[in-house]
Write a structure and sequence with these properties.
By secondary structure, the protein is an alpha/beta fold. The chain is built from 15 helices and 13 strands. It has two domains: about 200 residues, Rossmann fold; about 140 residues, Rossmann fold (3-Layer(aba) Sandwich). Helix 6 links the parallel strand 7 and strand 8. The longest helix is centred in the middle third of the chain and has 32 residues. The model has no long low-confidence stretch (mean pLDDT about 95).
């Protein structure tokens, strides 16, 4: 059987689903894309990317081949359904599975015999067996007979120039051997990388959570080092770069103003909450989350210290927040530390001027020049390429007196030599 004769449906045309749909088209598949956001559908119909992502913008011509719709009845045409809906956490950091449940409900109501349903959304271990499969079973469907269920945790890094949906290796797991075989064959047909079949669907679910918890823990470690080294007059970045000269048993991670994005600050909670249900407390993961969640406030505290040094009050001073998105050169605001930094500045009665060239509709000004003319102090939140072109002299010329470098990306020594107050994260 030629796997490419199958019709693909992608539920959720966001940062994960849309690149995946385009890649399937690029590899010769006929693809249906489902999303409830009419703005996204309109953008796609006009052959425009609904968000900033170079991978999509380089392939806009393929959007005309994507059958984008909000009509779930089209799922009955699909042989393979890829679920790429978000899985956020609530204010208590408990995973919200309603988007996944909604997608499964669509599959049940518009089913076709023998479909492969792949959940790509990040979920905690056990969701496919304890939530998804029971929903399908309640509808009278038997896995391995009426349909096949697999999990292939999404791996996407928006803005990454090297790794994208075409070449990042993947893992798959299924409730049945046949389901795993079909899933492995499908993913092998669209990516230029290894597709590893896990022993169980639960192990596939755990893989993604472990990947991002690993990063969260290591970032928490260096964030704590940054706070410690601030008290010892040690440049944490220089120390990390020195440690990285060791060619084995060390992987450099760097501190910053907080962790953003949909994965790293969210996924550890999936494991924490699932383990809690089973009677285990992930103390280490909870501490890492506490440390990383503290960094936006710590960043504002650093600004308070710099203003004290300059004999200026926090209240009423115009503080510029440079960057709103959680990482450079994209327009993704999910879990961005900038949001928390702004809230903390508001509590301290500062006058806030925000600017992000990728999120102009939420910015207080529209250009870099206008931003610099407005502000007296700056918190550098996102190292967009446009921001990295600004020289220390430019800050000085515009009357900036203090800069907190939340990304440790600026020339701190030069800034201080010009008479401005400067502090990085673990770099004084």
């Amino acid at each position: 059987m030629d796997i490419k004769k199958n019709k693909i449906a992608v539920i959720g045309l966001g940062y994960v689903g849309l690149p995946l749909a385009i890649r399937c088209i690029e590899k010769g598949y006929s693809v249906i894309g489902l999303d409830l956001d009419q703005k996204k559908l309109t953008a796609i119909a006009n052959r425009k990317s609904p968000f900033k992502e170079e991978f999509i913008e380089e392939r806009l011509d393929l959007l005309e081949k994507l059958e984008a719709s909000n009509d779930a009845s089209k799922l009955v045409e699909a042989d393979i359904i890829l679920i790429c809906v978000p899985t956020p956490v609530d204010e208590q950091f408990y995973p919200n599975l309603n988007p996944v449940k909604g997608a499964i409900k669509m599959c049940i109501e518009n089913r076709k015999p023998g479909q492969l349903i792949v959940v790509e959304s990040t979920i905690n271990p056990g969701v496919c067996e304890e939530v998804v499969e029971p929903m399908l079973a309640k509808a009278g469907l038997d896995e391995g007979k009426d349909y096949f269920l697999a999990h292939c945790p999404e791996r996407i890094d928006p803005g990454n120039e090297k790794w994208n949906v075409t070449n990042i290796p993947r893992v798959v797991g299924s409730l049945s051997v046949k389901g795993a075989e079909i899933a492995q064959k499908f993913y092998a047909s669209i990516i230029d990388g290894e597709v590893r079949v896990m022993k169980s669907i639960r192990e596939a679910e755990a893989t993604k959570v472990v990947e991002n918890s690993f990063r969260d823990i290591n970032i928490a470690f260096v964030n704590e080092l940054a706070k410690s080294f601030d008290q010892m007059d040690i440049d944490v970045k220089d120390v990390i770069l020195g440690a990285a000269t060791k060619p084995f048993a060390f992987m450099p991670h760097f501190p910053g103003r907080g962790v953003g994005g949909h994965c790293i600050p969210v996924d550890p909670y999936y494991l924490i909450e699932q383990a809690k249900k089973k009677g285990f407390d992930h103390h280490f993961l909870r501490v890492a989350r506490e440390i990383n969640n503290s960094m936006p406030n710590y960043t504002v505290e650093l600004m308070q210290d710099l203003l004290n040094n300059a004999k200026l009050p926090m209240k009423g001073i115009k503080i510029g927040v440079m960057g709103l998105s959680y990482k450079a050169n994209i327009d993704d605001l999910r879990e961005s530390p900038a949001v928390k930094i702004i809230k903390e500045l508001e509590k301290k009665k500062a006058s806030i001027v925000s600017f992000d060239p990728y999120i102009l509709d939420m910015s207080d000004v529209k250009t870099v020049d206008e931003f610099l003319e407005e502000v007296q102090a700056v918190i550098f939140v996102t190292n967009h390429k446009e921001f990295m072109k600004i020289t220390p002299e430019k800050f000085k010329e515009n009357g900036v007196v203090a800069i907190v470098d939340g990304m440790n990306a600026l020339d701190g020594e030069k800034i201080k030599s010009l008479g401005m107050e400067y502090h990085g994260i673990g770099r004084s």
